[in-house]
Amino acid sequence: MRKMSHLFPVLCAVNTSSFCHGFLRPRMEGMGRAGQSCLFCLPLKIFCLLVQVIGHSNFGSIRATTCVYKGKWIYEVLISSQGLMQIGWCTLSCRFNQEEGVGDTPDSYAYDGNRVRKWNVTTTNYGKSWAAGDIVSCLIDLDEGTIAFCLNGISLGTAFDNITRGAGMAYFPAISLSFKESVAFNFGSRPLRYPLAAGRGGYRPLQDPPVADLVKARKLLGYLKNVIHLGIDVTEGKLVEKDTSMWQLQGEPTVLITLAHIFNYFAPLMCKVYLVEDVLMTFLLSILERGGAVEAHPLIQQLLDLMWLLMEEYEVHECLKQLLMSLLRAYRFSPIIPDLGLQIHYLRLTIAVLKHEKSRKYLLSNVLYPLHLLWSQFSLPTIVQPRRLQGSAGKEVKEESAEERLRRRAYERGCQRLKKRIEVVEGLQVQILKLLLNNKDRGGGEASRYIFLNKFRKFLQENASNRGNLTVLCPPEYMVCFLHRLIAALRFFWDGHKAKTPATLSSEAYVPPQLFYNGKVDYFDLQRLGGLLSHLKKTLKDDLAAKANVLIDPAELQAVTMDDLDEDEESAMSAAQSQRPSAALAIGGALARPGWLSSPTLGRANRFLSTAAVSLMNPRRPLGTLEKIKVRTLSVEQRTEEDIEGSHGNEGLLLGRPPEEPEQPITENSLLEVLDGIVMMYNLSVHQQLGKMVGVSDDVNEYAMALKDTEEKISRCPKRRRDIHEELLKSQKVFSEKLNHLSRRLAWINVTIYSKEKMQDIYWLLRVCIRTIEHGDRTGSLFAFMPEFYLSVAMNSYSALKNYFSPVNSMEELPGYEETLMRLAAILAKHFADSRIVGTDIRDSLMQALASYVCYPHSLRAVERIPEEQRISMMKNLLAPYEQRPWAQTNWILVRLWRGCGFGYRYTRLPHLLKTKPEDASLPSLQKPCPSTLLQRHMADLLRSDRDLAPSFLNSVLNQLNWAFSEFIGMIQEIQQAAERLERNFVDSRQLKVCATCFDLSVSLLRVLEMTVTLAPEIFLDWNRPSSELLLRRLAQLLNQVLNRVTAERNLFDRVVNLRLPGLESVDHYPILVAVTGILVRLLGKGGLTPSLCRAERATAVLLADPCFQLRSIQYLLGHAEPSALAAAPAAAEKRHFSLHTYTDYISTEELVKVDKMLSHLSEESKQAAATTLPTSEEDLCPICYAHPISAIFRPCSHKSCKACINQHLMNNKDCFFCKATITGVDDFTKPSSS
């Protein structure tokens, strides 16, 4: 005999450090020691409604409050996720922690379907692998001392025997599960899904079923069926059989009175979840089993009418609630069979119930939200694999064997069959959403669509406000399914409205900009492009009045939030809200009560619902002829249908239309809000989920390569090494099983997430965002009101189309692909430096998106196709000074426009990295060079024509180069010092990453300087231009510093490069030396695009005049070592010296010839300069740099320095070096000749 058999067995969670809320506390009487709630467990989340448990720690454990010590017992566990879990039984003495759970201690026994093992201190193979949606039956026989498990009703065999029994030994249901894993328990409060397992051998659920009520309910249901099957033949006065599908609740008072008597006893029973699921749901499902469309079974509608007429309102509400929740559970926890027949069956019944208007409105108002409860019924879990889909989806090899070909074709056929069945399920899901979006069912209350809108907005608010709280958020896999079905339903209604009115097709849909500032749609606390909404209302109130005829309520200008409003205003709002009808009145009317059904003796039949029309509209508020409209932000609960759709001069959601928008509405206003919600949904979690699923394909390829490698090792393994051969066979089996599992999962993902139809949905969403941004941009300053997520979704959806859906589907096949690329390019080019956008994160995202855009040939060509004015404006913004703004991405964009044109700059991967493991080829940085000569030409024209732009831009580039290279040298000094210490130490990986980043920045800045010198050399060499001489001297100084640091023999750079530390792979001689060489060749050359002879001599003179210049650094480029190094040691002669001649695959012969000529030219010029240079006394040297003679005198203080130092100083500061007086002018200084 069991303890507490009459109580609901629940799970308890008690932790010494954190109390788990949702604790279910049963009555304590009769429990004794065996029923005490004293389990130690880790943080978990328990949902009372479904007895659902979610792991909130590394490996949390939990047990029930009810135990058994004799007899045969069973409970079911509904698997919600297929991760690491151990399910079974434990005793009161078991103690668990984050390392040891159920099955890891004596007297605890568990089954783990993730690793396919059983656990009791030790572990062995057992059972089959489970998946989300499976049901595990846990059986214990305390008479025989055995424990067994079943998976979806199929016995897995006895897992444990001879378990400990006797005095003081009682067993509790228990589970241990990893973080975010979830299950739901059924101890018998609801019908067991697999009663055959329960009935086999006399196993009983821990909670007894309501046997008496079951007998009564089934008998009453039989009476109800008899009434429906029979009719009265008035002419002959006898009963006749009738077709139940044609039965209607009309006429025949005797029939209705009989039904009223039946419901007098049947209705109270339908408030119990067990009876609803076992009796009512089974009966309704049997009606649909006859086949045909749902519309072909009006009997369900008639039965629902009967329930609303003959049952008390609270009884109908509870019955419908339990019915829908039972359908939800049945859908979620149905095993995935090839034809998905169970899921289709439950969806059909859901549709049949929701087709009943009054039932639909009640369920929509009270049951179907939170939305993840609704959509968990509609979404097939993306982590589940179809059971019988065989084959492998590994990376194809060039030579495919006959066996591999057969397996691949079988796999593809299985994918096609799966796709067809899933399309059926998705079609039913869309039908459900069409019912919920119905706006014509205004019988007795608000239409379904407006109930849905308010609930939908609340759902979005909860998910936007709790992005860090995983237990509150809608699971992302459900959100993905919901998004696609909602898009299909929305486009259906959008195009249906177009057929009736001169509106816009859904293919041209967008969200009008007035939704963002008129307060009709609540965007919660989401960031706007221009900052906080309260700030925008204050700063742009005049623009709103002038452009949109909108006046912001003064109360909102005084209060940051609605909570700060005056008490009078709050009371007025509450009074206005109290005048609106309650939600109960919004569910529609009831059947008219027949006059003859008025006898007080008929009990429940004596009640009826009034069919009097109830108006949901507030008194209309005519706008009159006022030019300005005062608006206030409305919360979700405050809005009515009139606030959404508008009426009699009130434009509803379109209030405050700017002159740039058309007068004719593009569709129904309510559909615009649905569209806006779809965009927000994608931003909340859909994009992240799309990216997450891509990893499955990578895993498949990795396991396929591992399996192939293992098979090759088996073929080469010597026969005498049986031990190695056996281990290889074990590895082959593991890899093969994992590959098959991942291949099935990949098939599911490709059908449900990455199919062509889903790709078209994301593409449609991208185009919606592009049109919305374009329309918002036309409103001028009001563009700042647009939420940031519109720009984020535009960028992320394009990224998803390009990176996630290929190679299965190609973006290039989408209609209007080239035009869409160009329009998105125009948005990125215009708004990455838009002053109306103030958020740092969104500005960085725009910059990164543009940087990625110019890395790919097809998208770069789209940038080149945007209007010339926009291209020039983009380049001008890119050439803005680097100070006080994030410049790294800007510089990267310029580098990408140049890559492929620079000296030795045609590589995709650096030469020294070719032998290393290849990186992800889809990364923007690993794309083949695709320079843009058109944008280069725009850059050259801007630098030549704008005499202020070029000096400020180049000065900032030189400043950043000086900083980046100095930081790099400082860091490699620290790294070298750490490496030379005798004690073992580790260099911080973050420091290595920063060091490599500074090196990469230095190289990219040098490439931008090379680009500038090539395209517009006169900026440095035409000394008639202001600052040209200074820029040239600064450039020469930096180039010499870089060369000296990198080329010195046995220097710091060499030692760090030779360490080959992980994280510093990109640090090498080649990238930085070829960049410097490219600048020198362009400055000193005498042909083509290079400067004239006079300018080349000027550049040579400046380079040689720099005190840091060393000819050996130039010689180092061609492998000419120093004489001292050659005579040092014999071992040193064997060391390979750097030379550009060894990189003939990357540097052309013509480029090498130019370097040879440059070396000869500098060698000759340096000899002449050394012969003609007179010694300079220390007194005549500049007191700042001590490198150049004094050549300038300051006014009015008369202090002196060289021109280079004072010109560089005056670019940033006007104060004297020495006395801090303001310098008003600089004159040439010539030392007077001595007497």
From TrEMBL:
<dbReference type="GO" id="GO:0005737">
    <property type="term" value="C:cytoplasm"/>
</dbReference>
<dbReference type="Pfam" id="PF00622">
    <property type="entry name" value="SPRY"/>
</dbReference>
<feature type="region of interest" description="Disordered">
    <location>
        <begin position="640"/>
        <end position="664"/>
    </location>
</feature>
<keyword id="KW-0862">Zinc</keyword>
<protein>
    <recommendedName>
        <fullName>E3 ubiquitin-protein ligase RNF123</fullName>
        <ecNumber>2.3.2.27</ecNumber>
    </recommendedName>
</protein>
<dbReference type="InterPro" id="IPR001870">
    <property type="entry name" value="B30.2/SPRY"/>
</dbReference>
<dbReference type="Pfam" id="PF13920">
    <property type="entry name" value="zf-C3HC4_3"/>
</dbReference>
<keyword id="KW-0832">Ubl conjugation</keyword>
<dbReference type="InterPro" id="IPR013083">
    <property type="entry name" value="Znf_RING/FYVE/PHD"/>
</dbReference>
<comment type="pathway">
    <text>Protein modification; protein ubiquitination.</text>
</comment>
<dbReference type="InterPro" id="IPR013320">
    <property type="entry name" value="ConA-like_dom_sf"/>
</dbReference>
<keyword id="KW-0488">Methylation</keyword>
<dbReference type="GO" id="GO:0061630">
    <property type="term" value="F:ubiquitin protein ligase activity"/>
</dbReference>
<dbReference type="GO" id="GO:0008270">
    <property type="term" value="F:zinc ion binding"/>
</dbReference>
<feature type="domain" description="RING-type">
    <location>
        <begin position="1182"/>
        <end position="1220"/>
    </location>
</feature>
<dbReference type="InterPro" id="IPR045129">
    <property type="entry name" value="RNF123/RKP/RSPRY1"/>
</dbReference>
<feature type="domain" description="B30.2/SPRY">
    <location>
        <begin position="1"/>
        <end position="192"/>
    </location>
</feature>
<comment type="subunit">
    <text>Component of the KPC complex composed of RNF123/KPC1 and UBAC1/KPC2. Interacts with UBAC1 and CDKN1B via its N-terminal domain. Interacts with RIGI (via N-terminus) and IFIH1 (via N-terminus).</text>
</comment>
<keyword id="KW-0597">Phosphoprotein</keyword>
<dbReference type="InterPro" id="IPR035773">
    <property type="entry name" value="SPRY_RNF123"/>
</dbReference>
<dbReference type="GO" id="GO:0016567">
    <property type="term" value="P:protein ubiquitination"/>
</dbReference>
<keyword id="KW-0833">Ubl conjugation pathway</keyword>
<keyword id="KW-0808">Transferase</keyword>
<keyword id="KW-0863">Zinc-finger</keyword>
<dbReference type="InterPro" id="IPR003877">
    <property type="entry name" value="SPRY_dom"/>
</dbReference>
<dbReference type="InterPro" id="IPR043136">
    <property type="entry name" value="B30.2/SPRY_sf"/>
</dbReference>
<dbReference type="Pfam" id="PF25576">
    <property type="entry name" value="TPR_RNF123"/>
</dbReference>
<keyword id="KW-0963">Cytoplasm</keyword>
<dbReference type="InterPro" id="IPR057987">
    <property type="entry name" value="TPR_RNF123/RKP"/>
</dbReference>
<dbReference type="InterPro" id="IPR001841">
    <property type="entry name" value="Znf_RING"/>
</dbReference>
<keyword id="KW-0479">Metal-binding</keyword>
<dbReference type="GO" id="GO:0051603">
    <property type="term" value="P:proteolysis involved in protein catabolic process"/>
</dbReference>
